[in-house]
Amino acid sequence: MDVLSAEAPWRVSFAFEENLDNEAWNYTRLPDELFRPVDGVFNGHGKVRQSRTRLVRSLDRENRLAVEFSNARLTRNDVPAWNADQREIWDTGVAAVMDGAGGAVRWHAVAHWRDRDVQWSQLDDRGGLVAPRKVETGREGLILELQPRGAGRDSLGRAPAAPLSALRFVYDQWAVADRADTLGARPIDLLGEDGRGRHVLAEARTGRRFGGSRGEVALRGV
């Protein structure tokens, strides 16, 4: 289901998708044409439910703010690679995007946050969870890109040419929390602790057009 409001300074969109039936998926390493039912039943069932809501505020022709919220859940059974009868994934994200221009500069800014939890377990005869294990992950960050306004037109003379020079800054931080009942069950690389980290990137890019072609050079620092 997709809903989009009429063109206006304030605009809202909403998208929703759900699998009403169990869909078999090929959980083996065999080609799809060799994937056959077992005792008349296709194992490897999966269900998906996801939605996305977006609110857009257009200030003028060049300045716009968009806020987006997304939510998803994925369920699968028979996951031999995980040694599990069932796996659940919950995914939630929020992002704010600002596109604008002032003077001789155009900017694109993004603030984002995403949380993803994964749980897998065996099932008992009644379908209940047996020794479930859950890993929680989160990532948030900022992106800022600055570039001069394009004043020319493309090689066909039909649209404003995109600037070939830009500055880009990226900052991300992430966290992983393993909710295993015992430290011995946690992955070795976590050494019994929750994992955390960050990533910082600065990039300067410039280039030149040659007829209908373009060449670019970028300098990055991490």
Helix content: under 10%
Poorly predicted runs: 151-159, 188-192
* Number of DSSP E strands: 11
Radius of gyration from CA coordinates: 24 Å
> What's the average pLDDT?
77
Q: Could you spell the SSE succession in H and E letters?
A: EEEEEEEEEEE
Overview of this structure, please?
By secondary structure, this protein is mainly beta. Helices cover 0% and strands 63% of the residues. The protein is built from no helices and eleven strands. Strands 1, 2, 3, 4, 5, 6, 7, 8, 9, 10 and 11 form an eleven-stranded antiparallel sheet that branches. A hairpin with a 4-residue loop joins strand 5 and strand 6. The chain starts with a strand and ends with a strand. The relative contact order is 0.10. About 6% of the residues have low confidence.
List the helices and strands and how they pair.
Elements (H helix, E strand, L loop, with lengths): L1 E3 L5 E9 L4 E2 L20 E14 L5 E16 L4 E19 L2 E19 L5 E20 L17 E13 L16 E16 L2 E9 L1
Antiparallel strand pairs: 1-2, 2-4, 3-4, 4-5, 5-6, 6-7, 7-8, 8-9, 9-10, 10-11
What keywords describe this structure?
eleven-stranded antiparallel β-sheet, mainly beta, 222 residues, 11 strands
